Amino acid sequence: MTINDITRQLVRQRAKYLCEYCHSSEKASATRFTLDHIIPQSLGGSDESDNLALACQRCNERRYNFTVATDPQTQAIVPLFNPRQQQWSEHFIWTADALNILGQTPIGRATCDRLDLNDERYDEDDSIRTARQLWVQGGWHPPIEDPRHR
Ligand SMILES: [Zn+2]
User: Fold this and answer.
1) Which pTM value belongs to this model?
2) For residue 94, which of 18, 16, 17 has the smallest C-alpha distance?
3) How much distance in Å is there from the Cα of 65 to the middle of ligand 1?
4) Where are the alpha helices (DSSP H) in the chain?
5) Burial 40-57 (b: 16+ CB within 10 A, else e)
6) Distance from the CA of 62 to the center of ligand 1, in angstroms?
7) What pLDDT, on the 0 to 100 scale, is given for residue 43?
8) More confident residue, 124 or 104
9) Ligand 1 center–CA 76 separation, angstroms
10) Residue 25 CA to ligand 1 centre (angstroms)
11) Which of 13, 53, 83, 105 has the fewest other C-beta atoms within 10 Å?
């Protein structure tokens, strides 16, 4: 990777220090978030900021080099959420308790599933939902501009 510090900082600021997929806060993480290539490098994606998104380690690992996924509701193959071209709030909503992200569209549902945004493949005690519960108790989750079920 040849992404320079200026680009790296631009991407982090543009994302408001949130993972652009699961909206976890980089500031609450012990390690800095990674830069995700929206079009993967393996498919010719560039290091330009237009092709980069801030992503926590778990989202970056789960996205890997996938660009499409299956909408669990319709079984249609659809593109993954693209934070450069789409609005998070149009595709996702938090549950009332702010522990789970719900896909609102085929893209939202497929992305929730592919990236396992709610860690449903693991035991509840060791999941992102446990961390979110602490963040809610701390009063700084979910991000204030995010839609949330009432
Ligand atoms: Zn994430």
Assistant:
1) 0.94
2) 18
3) 15
4) 5-14, 57-63, 88-91, 106-114, 128-138
5) eeeeebeeebebbbbbbe
6) 9
7) 93
8) 104
9) 24
10) 9
11) 13
